[in-house]
Structure formats: structure tokens, C-alpha cells
Amino acid sequence: MAEPTQRLELLCLGVGKGATHVLRGEPSTAFAVLDGGRPRLLVDCGAGVLRSCRELLDGAVPRDVYLTHNHMDHTGDLPVAVQVLSALGLPPRLLGHADVLDIVRRHRLHELPPSRIDGVEWIEADADGALHLGGRLGLRLHRSVHSYLCYGFELLCDGGVLAAYSGDSAYDPGVHGRVARAPVAVVDGRPAGNHDHASFDELDTLAASHPDCTFLVVHYEHSDHVFASANIRLWRTGERVLLPRAA
């Protein structure tokens, strides 16, 4: 795989939650890591995300797909993605924590014929939570605070943190303090928090205490909320964010 360029971006593919795609026809929460404008990694592949790839990535489906957890709004389109990539002669590489991938293999992809499953390359994080993406890029996983097994991550280049993702997570000082150390943090948030998702108020307070981090809020479906802190905003589908240059 080619070395990463100096232009790495995050592209928002959707901000939906739960049944958003089913009820509203809008894509579930997902984003892509772009390297020189080309998709390098897809983060989650929930309901409606492949249509978003078609519209925002010129139809491209990244071969590397990181999966936070097996809820429908994070893996619902995955069986189709596996078939599309396989038909193109690009066996998909599914990345994540070993326990998450095992759940996905047994429960999300059970509808596919064995020939399709046999073509999937399963890329599990090591015991320290590290995943190598090829070249200078990698991920370092952390477990989110969620009722269903879920893992967020930090995006690394030569060991330095470029961005982080909370995954679906209730507000937690450990999880959110960790992602806030990144220059760009994608965070799961809702107007009212609960045991699975952080609230806008909690995230606003987090942003105020970490002014050097840019916070991008996802998984909210629809909102016009304006945060008090200048360094946090609702991420919108189709919006690109340039990451800091790797040293």
C-alpha cells in the first residue's frame, strides 16, 4: 500500500442514529479517512452508508473498513459492501477489536455464502489495541462506554495522534479525556445524554476544557444546536476536515 501523503482528511458520510435511515432515508453515522483525496479507510458501514459513498466518494467503497460495533446503524450495509468489493476483485479487509469482529462474522455476515466470507481478510487489533493500516498510518483502540461491545480509536501517523473517535459512548472522563488529547476528535453526542451516548452539554464542557482540540459531533440525526465553546460543532454530511500534517 502506498505511503500516506501529507494531505489527510476526514469526510463525514452521515450523522444518523438507530433507525434514521429506515425512517428518514438518511445515512447512518460514518466517515472516511482520505489520503490525497482518495478514500483510505471507511469507519463503520451502517444502513445508508453505501449510498453516501456513491454520492460523496464517486461510488468508491474503501477496501479497509473499521467496525466500532455490530449495531445496524454501524454495520447494516456491510453484507452488501462485502459483495460489492468481492465482485470488483478487491477482497474486503475488516478491521477492529477481535471480539467485535467475531460478533460481526457470526451475526451480521451470516447471510452471505461461505465463498464470500472466505474472501474477507479479518484484521484484528493486537493485545495492546494497535492496528497497522499500512505505510505510516495506524489505529490505537479504546473501549467505549456502551451497553453493546464497542471500540473507538486514535488515528496515528508514525506513532503521533492525528485524530480520535469516541465510538458510541456515554460521557466518561477516561474515554473523552483520551480523545480530547487529539487535535481533532469525532465524538458521539445527543441533545440529551444517556447510558450509551454523551449529551451536548457534557461535550460542550469537555470542549471548553480542551481548547486546542477541534470537536466534531456525530450521531445526532437532526439538530440546529449551537455550542457555547468555539472549538466544537455539529459535523455535517459531506463536510471535510483537514488533519494536521504528519511530522
Can you give a write-up of this model?
By secondary structure, the chain is of the alpha/beta class. It contains 8 helices and 15 strands. It has helices at 20-24, 49-56, 72-75, 78-87, 98-108, 114-118, 173-179, 200-209, and strands at residues 8-14, 30-35, 38-43, 64-66, 93-96, 121-124, 130-134, 137-143, 151-157, 160-165, 184-190, 198-199, 214-218, 232-234, 240-242. The strands form 2 sheets. Strands 7, 8, 9, 10, 11, 12, 13 and 14 form an 8-stranded mixed beta sheet that branches. It has a 7-stranded mixed beta sheet with strand order 6-5-4-3-2-1-15. Strand 2 (30-35) and strand 3 (38-43) form a beta hairpin. It is globular. The two termini are 20 Å apart.
Helix/strand layout:
Elements: E1 8-14, H1 20-24, E2 30-35, E3 38-43, H2 49-56, E4 64-66, H3 72-75, H4 78-87, E5 93-96, H5 98-108, H6 114-118, E6 121-124, E7 130-134, E8 137-143, E9 151-157, E10 160-165, H7 173-179, E11 184-190, E12 198-199, H8 200-209, E13 214-218, E14 232-234, E15 240-242
Parallel strand pairs: 3-4, 4-5, 5-6, 10-11, 11-12, 11-13, 13-14
Antiparallel strand pairs: 1-2, 1-15, 2-3, 7-8, 8-9, 9-10
